[in-house]
Amino acid sequence: MQPQIPELNANLSARFTTDVSNLPDLDGRNLILDMALVEKADEEGLRAILTVYHQQYDSGMSCALTGLNSTLTNQIKAADETVYNLAPTMLEAIDLVMMEDFERELLNDEE
User: Fold this and answer.
1) Environment class of residue 89 by beta-carbon count within 10 Å: exposed (0-12), middle (13-18) or buried (19+)?
2) Is pLDDT above 70 for 111?
3) Radius of gyration of the chain (CA)
4) CA-to-CA distance for 108 and 111, rounded, in angstroms?
5) Residue 31 belongs to domain with CATH number
6) How many Å apart are CA 87 and CA 15, to the nearest integer?
């Protein structure tokens, strides 16, 4: 998914979270957020990104963020040090979520 907004702020953060959470066919699927068009985010915008990220993991799926500029990357790292899937390119983001899928499969096979 690629948000089509230059700034994710308090006015847009609730809608962003809702729109992503209500994506058709998201249930049971991994999510890659391509943030290339988002130039900046305020505190509420960062919270929205982190909420979506953690919702995916809470549901047993993966999430990766790609296309982040250096400012957003640093803001996300500072806001939550548990966000590991920050990928510079879409291909790397795909690799990250595929590797996590593979890891989950291996762990399930061991049980």
Assistant:
1) exposed
2) no
3) 14
4) 5
5) 3.30.750.24
6) 24
Domain that holds residue 92: 7-110
Per DSSP, helices labelled H in the chain are: 10-21, 43-58, 70-79, 90-110
Structural domains of the chain, count: 1
Enter the tokens of residue 22: 């209500």
Which residue has 């809470």 as its token pair? 58
Q: What is the pLDDT of residues 7-58, one digit of tens each?
A: 899 999 999 999 998 888 888 899 999 999 999 999 999 999 999 999 999 9
Of 32, 31, 38, the closest CA to residue 70 belongs to: 38
The per-residue pLDDT for range 65-90, each reduced to its tens digit, is: 999 999 999 999 999 999 889 999 99
pLDDT, mean over the chain: 91
Question: What's the rounded Cα separation, in Å, for the pair 97 and 111?
Answer: 21
Q: How are beta strands 31-34 and 63-66 bridged, if at all? A: parallel
Q: Give, rounded to a whole angstrom, the gap between the first and last alpha carbons of the chain.
A: 33
Residue 2 lies in a domain: no
